[in-house]
Design brief:
Elements: H1 2-54, H2 56-67, H3 73-79, H4 82-91, E1 133-139, E2 144-150, E3 156-160, H5 171-177, E4 180-185, E5 201-205, E6 208-213, E7 220-226, E8 231-235, H6 241-251, E9 253-260, E10 262-263, E11 268-269, E12 272-275, E13 278-279, E14 293-298, E15 303-308, H7 321-330, E16 333-338, E17 347-349, E18 352-355, E19 371-376
Helix pairs in contact: 1-2, 2-3, 2-4
Amino acid sequence: MEDNYSRPRRGKKKKQSKLKVALKMLGGLLILVLITLIIGVGTLYLTLFKIKNSSEAARNLLITTLMESGQLKFVAHMVCSDEEIEEIVSTNSMESMDVDQDTTLINVSDKATESDANQTTAKDDEKFDENGIRIEEISGRSFFAKMMIIKDPAQVSVGSTYPWGKLGKELGELVEDSGAIAGVNGGLYVSTGNSGGSPMGVVVQNGEITYNNPYGLAGLYVIGLNNDNILIVDDISGKSSADFEAYVKEKGIRDAVAFQDEASDSNNHFVPLIINGKPRQLGGQGSGANPRTAIGQRSDGAILLLVTDGRGTSGHLGATASDLIAIMQEYGAVNAANLDGGSSSSMYYNGNYEMTSVTFYYQNSSWRLPDAFVVKQKGGN
């Protein structure tokens, strides 16, 4: 009888012993994680504090970069007061561009519709592939980028998930669902939780307004193409939905998205880069360094689609407003605008991602998006 009762007790002791070991291991792991976190936060704080006190230029770039991120604004507040942040953001600022576009500066070349995709242009040795597309790599001091040049602006339009649902689609899906071959991410949208199902502001597709809620968004701009295939970058802030309907008819807008030109503690966006060949005047670098997406148009009508990396990708911080303007000027942009950037920035062509999201688990895809600028195949509808 004694043996029969002793075995269960030994089994219970073994279970309790294993539980104690497991709890000890878990406790040790938690302590290790806590120590690592403390060291990490401490190292980050000391690094930021060192940057803040060693170089005004480095400090300004760091703070403006952090203030443009969706989740890292709190880091800027770790080392700078609200007053300091406001001063830094205002120092690295941009003058407004309250000027009407001169559409006569764009002359869409008849050659853009010719069948010979390998024709040379005003730029020496510039050749396009069978789809009238050319992609060039750009290496900057703090970023890597790709510029997609589309000879015929009629190939560029807006693709979307309309009718809108809860979830958006990855850029590659948007491109292919639109019957297109290339594209970049588009305008302002609700990105919370990477749902990407709802745009913000306005969306126009083939002359039809598919999203119309412009009122109440500070500094809202429409960015897109009119029926003459000319890139339009225009301030529509303060317009009602009815105002925008009238605007689309009057201006002949065929495809467009929206983005904001508004800088504050909660929102750091900018839109116009170059208008009528004149660059926007900047204070400092104009902005922080981040992944960027931009669109421009040359005098011959060719569309320029630019995407840069940043936020640690390949060790790169990203591109500033000054960088975008310099690149667009180098490529001959008469008009150019900044689009949504950060983790949304991506470029897709011919079944592959040329530039991808900065988030490590989206290295071969993109965030979900409600819309994008897409490029149809040459001769496609």
